[in-house]
Design a protein that fits this description.
- By secondary structure, this protein is of the alpha+beta class.
- The chain folds into 4 domains: 89 residues, conserved putative lor/sdh protein from methanococcus maripaludis s2 fold, CATH 2.40.420.20; 89 residues, Beta Barrel (Elongation Factor Tu (Ef-tu), domain 3), CATH 2.40.30; 62 residues, RNA polymerase II/Efflux pump adaptor protein, barrel-sandwich hybrid domain (OB fold (Dihydrolipoamide Acetyltransferase, E2P), Beta Barrel); 75 residues, Orthogonal Bundle (Helix Hairpins).
- It is 28% helix and 37% strand.
- A hairpin with a 6-residue loop joins β13 and β14.
- α2 runs antiparallel to α3.
- The longest helix is centred in the first third of the chain and has 36 residues.
């Protein structure tokens, strides 16, 4: 009876061993199965342009002049203030004319005296010539009379020039606009004693306007030749104008490390008034590429790749890509992929180092 008992025990051990083996394999499979990871994704959209900016700036006149009196004096009137529209020849300010009037009176008196002296010298010369015909005076006396007459005539001319200067200075007591424009700055007040040439007001010509913007120095070198900017009003973004770079400041400002750029506007809308705040941007054509966050790139084992979500949005696959050297100015924190992706591909943009080939994923951005 022993052999059957031994056989029974052996079969039982085999059955129990088989059950334990199946349980071990199930545990190993469960351990090997990767967890479903939530991922953040972005749909790859092709782009063939880059945008430079926008940068904030203002509308300023190309031509403006700081006007002042040509003579010193005390200012007694200022007829305009900031924002006033002025016409050519319009009076802007005036000086006290008392001193200039005294100079004019003295110049008139000097001219009258010089003319009297000249008439006297001419009469003396005429008398000397008559005496010379009768050999009553020496030749030297006649020469002296002629010299005095010439000197008197020169003094008349000098007095006439001094009188003209005094009259001009009377005109200089009024400051007049040299062209049609707008007053943009007031530099002196009534009662102030001014020196010759000291600024009183600044007048700008509104007919030629340009956009003025400060751009970081590092971006200036990336400007393409003969580029065309788009200038938009901040108060009305739909109103735009085209412009070309007219001038780039040769040196950067020490504090901001930016350089001032002046952009000539092409037929700007009247809404682009002097002092208006604007946004300036430049759009350029480039090779077709896909802009993605820099966190989407997996640079590992000598391969540059991204994780692409499958069509059923349940797993990911690694795909090698070609990355442009630079995505373009103003694209900080982004990469430009020129090959390896197709429009509509959904790319993982965060946590790329925690994924594996065929990893089960769950989209967390609401995509289906």
């Amino acid at each position: 009876m022993r052999p059957p008992a031994i056989l029974t025990v052996t079969l039982l051990a085999a059955v129990l061993g088989g059950c334990n083996g199946h349980e071990d394999k199930s545990r190993e499979s469960a351990a090997e199965a990767a967890p479903v990871r939530p991922v953040l994704t972005q749909v790859a959209e092709p782009s063939d342009t880059i945008t430079f900016g926008p940068f904030a700036g203002t509308i300023e006149p190309r031509y403006q002049a700081q006007l002042g009196f040509q003579i010193p004096g005390r200012m007694v009137a200022r007829d305009v203030t900031v924002g006033d529209i002025v016409k050519k020849g319009q009076r802007l300010a005036a000086l006290d004319i008392i001193v200039s009037r005294f100079d004019l009176t003295r110049a008139e008196a000097d001219l009258a005296d010089a003319r009297a002296q000249a008439e006297n010298a001419e009469s003396a010369e005429a008398r000397t010539r008559r005496l010379m015909t009768g050999n009553s005076v020496a030749q030297a006396t006649l020469d002296q009379a002629v010299a005095k007459r010439e000197t008197a005539r020169a003094r008349v001319e000098q007095a006439q020039a001094s009188l003209q200067k005094a009259r001009d200075q009377m005109g200089y007591t009024e400051l007049k606009a040299e062209f049609d424009g707008v007053v943009t700055q007031r530099l002196a007040e009534v009662g102030q004693v001014l020196s010759a040439g000291q600024g009183v007001v600044t007048v700008a010509r509104p007919d030629v306007r340009e956009a003025v913007v400060d751009i970081p120095e590092a971006y200036v070198g990336a400007l393409p030749a003969d580029c065309i900017f788009t200038v938009a009003l901040q108060s009305a973004p739909d109103l735009t104008a085209r412009g070309r770079v007219r001038e780039i400041a040769p040196l950067a400002e020490a504090g901001t490390r930016s350089r001032r750029i002046r952009i000539s506007l092409e037929n700007p809308n009247p809404a682009f008034r002097l002092g208006a705040t604007i946004n300036v941007a430049l759009t350029s054509k480039v090779e077709r590429r896909f802009l993605l966050p820099a966190s989407a790139l997996l640079d590992q084992d000598g391969r540059r790749s991204v994780w692409v979500v499958s069509a059923d949005a349940k797993s990911v696959a690694r795909r090698d890509v070609t990355v442009a050297p630079q995505p373009g100015r103003g694209e900080t924190g982004r990469i430009a992929i020129t090959a390896g992706l197709q429009p509509g591909d959904r790319v993982v943009v965060a946590g790329v180092h925690a994924l594996k080939e065929g990893q089960a994923v769950r989209l967390t951005d609401g995509a289906v």
